[in-house]
Amino acid sequence: MPSAQVCDAGATILVAEDDVLVRIAIAEYLRACGFRVIEASGGLEAKTVLQHGPAIHVLFADARLAGDDNSFALAQWTRRYRPAISIVLSANLTKKSEAAAHLCSRNQPNPPPASHLRERIKAMKASHVHRPKADRRPKAASR
Description:
Blueprint: E1 12-16, H1 20-32, E2 36-40, H2 43-52, E3 58-62, H3 71-81, E4 86-90, H4 93-105, H5 114-129
Parallel strand pairs: 1-2, 1-3, 3-4
Helix pairs in contact: 1-4, 1-5, 2-3, 4-5
């Protein structure tokens, strides 16, 4: 886990997560804990932020990012070119929630529990999946 110095309030965390609902929930949670959060939808976007964006203190990435710029390639690149950045890779919802709560515990005496974030993500996913068909966008026709 990142050191306490890196995780002070106002530190910037880059959240790289391809599941938009998970990314939104984690980013909101970390912002509520006093962090500045930048969101990336994948490894390539995260690398672009690391190269051209503001100073990043923590890279919080889904361990299952796909493609050429997958999470492990992103972590290796970050270690090589931005060694001062702490890296948190996490694959499942429970571990992601616990990692976010650990970061928050550095800033707040009583941060929201990890279970709060985990349940919020589950609720967001459930409401997204179970929308009535009339509320869903039509799929593009196959050719």
